[in-house]
Amino acid sequence: MFGFTRTTPEITWKSIEGDFLLGACSRRIFGYATRGAQGSWSAFDDEARPLGVFADLAATKSALWRAHREGHDAVCAAPETRPRRGERTGATRTSDPERSRTAAARLTSW
User: Fold this and answer.
1) Could you tell me which of 21, 70, 31 has the C-alpha nearest to residue 51?
2) In angstroms, rounded to a whole number, what is the distance separating the alpha carbons of residues 33 and 10?
């Protein structure tokens, strides 16, 4: 459906049944739009905040991308900093007895 590993600002649009549109960039869905009964499009950002109502799909897509673009370069297009599988992260695992004690303590609070 979407490719979330690209670092370029390539935009992907996914239309669902002609009246719902999802917009995604290199790593995440950044907004969506729905078409109303009169044919106008209502656009929303990734947190469902309204961006406006637009007469055509091109204006809707433009508004969705414009709302996301500011944070895109800093967050989405930035290189990943997660450790690779097998690399040490500095985190330590809790031993089984410690985990059992913690779980037992939580059960008593029910």
Assistant:
1) 31
2) 19
Per-residue confidence (pLDDT) for residue 75, from 0 to 100 = 72
Q: Where are the domains of the chain?
A: 12-76
pLDDT grade, residue 110 (50/70/90)? very low
* Nearest alpha carbon to residue 22 among 37, 12, 7, 32: 32
Cα gap 99→109, rounded to integer Å: 16
Q: What is the distance, to the nearest Å, from the Cα of residue 1 to the centroid of all Cα atoms in its chain? A: 14
Is-contact 87 79, C-beta < 8 A?
no
What is this structure's pTM? 0.62
**3-state SS class at 89:** coil
